[in-house]
Amino acid sequence: MGSSVRSSRSVTHPTRRTVLALAALGLVAAAPGAVSAAAPPEGQMIWGVHISLAPTWFDPAETPGVITPFMVMYALHDAMLKPMPDNALAPSLAESWSASEDGLSYDFVLRKGAKFHTGEAVTAEDVKFSFERYRGTSHDMMKERVAAVETPDAEHVRFRLKKPWPDFVTFYGGATGAAWIVSKKYVEKVGEEGFKKAPVGAGPYKFVSFNPGVELVFEAFDQYWRKQPKVKRLVFKVIPDETTRLAALKRGEVDVVYSIRGELAEELRSSPALTLKPTLVLGAFHLVFPDQWDPKSPWHDQRVRQAAGLAIDRKTTNDALTLGYSKVTGSIIPYNFEFFWQPPLPVYDPGKAKQLLAEAGFPNGFDAGEYYCDIAYANLGEAVLDNLLAIGIRAKLRPLERAAFFSGYGEKKFKNIIQYASGAFGNTATRLEAFIAKGGAYVYGSYPDIDELFQQQAAELDYKRREATLHKIQQLMYEKTINAPIWQLAFINGFGPRVSESGLGLIPSYTYSAPYEDVALKSK
């Protein structure tokens, strides 16, 4: 193919048509034969999880454009490529991949020795089946651009594209669940609903049990190709209340807790036996105004949207909720994403906000209806609502369980104000596709000039021209005040004295513990 061999760590643009070979990636995987030499897994590690877990997250085919399902998927499943500690797209079930010189095909070589929890080998048919049944975020875009998935033999898969697409690997392996593989034979045997009740994957841990609203239990899979897990059993215990989560950590009832904020985070930080672990994640929180395309809505007036942005006291809220660890960037795109354009940082100016409201015809403010948010971030919503109320925008908080929130958002059921963030992997284009460009999974309306530029960049093979186009889109988003950015979240977690390796922060900017085969308890 006329391609050079190099580590995928240095490859950020598939259009360079490089070949990724496992030989260059000794840092990402132990040889499959090394598994049996490791000590058998021991003990049980318990997470205090901040949200109620949903069975839809057991199935990679249903992955929405958010990071939450990966909390489960990194344990239960494995992917052709996936973000790992030393590599943003590490070959996993695929031993290597390569792209043709014309950018119209991508070839993957499957790893020998990779098995599902049934004991059966992962094959090319499973890869093809998993892609074809995928129905999550970016489903339409990928199906429109992929002409065919071919399986020359059990260990080779070829994706043929209708036209060059520089972001194929980014969408396939990072921003969606399309590259996470399930067993064709098992799914066809038990059916779609049966799979959710008793999911089988190819990851480091096997499904044991799920008690909705209570806990999810996994057990180590000793034939996992990368390495044998160190911990025998993982338990994800649902504890929605932060005070209760921290108390459970202090009592030693759980080993790791997610999302501890404000005074409780200060308490965690000052507890000698506990460790505070903040991670600046890919969740860029912002307000969405789904009614801005409705001429009858106050949000149709850009001055009203600008007023909302000026009303938010980001620094005070950051200091109060996330101990100042969150990062204000002024964008819905994470600052560390490829093609990020830095807009002017937002300012806090309630006086200017009131002036803009008056100019827009709302000198006394207005009733803005419901403010929809993920219940796990209701405290951020409360702070923002107080800021909005101070300038006369009156709204009512409507917190929803995470699965219900994403379902309602994706089905375009919400109006007024939506507080949102996606912690999903990807790049600037993947975020724009899901949340800004026409046809996106969470797009209620769009702007023709931005849609046209988005289509241009998607087919642009020249890196600098593509970067300039994506920067222009982000400039237009800023100029039109499409959203009101808040911050890029610092997700504040903690762990207890039994933990040797929590897995928190091992994968850069990833929200949860992973890889689970690396988590460890201290020796007794």
List segments where confidence is low: pLDDT < 50 over at least 5 consecutive residues.
1-36
Helix share bin = 25-40%
Number of strands: 20
* Whole-angstrom Rg: 23 Å
Q: Looking across the biggest beta sheet, what order are the strands in?
A: 10-11-12-3-13-18-14-17-15-16
Outline the structure in words.
By secondary structure, the chain is α+β, with helices and mostly antiparallel strands. Helix content is about 30%, strand content about 25%. The protein has helices at about 70-75, 125-135, 140-145, 170-175, 185-195, 240-250, 260-270, 300-310, 315-320, 350-360, 380-390, 400-410, 430-435, 450-460, 465-480; strands at about 5, 20, 40-50, 80-85, 85-90, 95-100, 105-110, 145-155, 155-160, 205-210, 215-220, 230-240, 255, 275-290, 365-375, 395-400, 415-420, 485-495, 500, 520. α8 runs antiparallel to α10 and α14 (about 450-460) packs antiparallel against α15 (about 465-480). It is globular, with a radius of gyration of 23 Å. It starts with a strand and ends with a strand.
Task: Quickly describe the structure.
The protein is built from 15 helices and 20 strands.
How are the secondary structure elements laid out?
Blueprint: E1 5-6, E2 19-20, E3 42-49, H1 70-76, E4 81-84, E5 87-91, E6 94-99, E7 105-110, H2 124-133, H3 139-145, E8 146-153, E9 156-161, H4 168-175, H5 184-197, E10 205-211, E11 215-220, E12 231-238, H6 242-250, E13 256-257, H7 262-270, E14 275-288, H8 302-311, H9 314-322, H10 350-359, E15 366-374, H11 378-390, E16 393-400, H12 402-410, E17 417-420, H13 428-435, H14 448-459, H15 463-480, E18 483-495, E19 499-501, E20 520-521
Parallel strand pairs: 1-2, 3-12, 3-13, 15-16, 15-17
Antiparallel strand pairs: 2-6, 4-5, 6-7, 7-9, 8-9, 10-11, 11-12, 13-18, 14-17, 14-18, 19-20
Helix pairs in contact: 8-10, 14-15
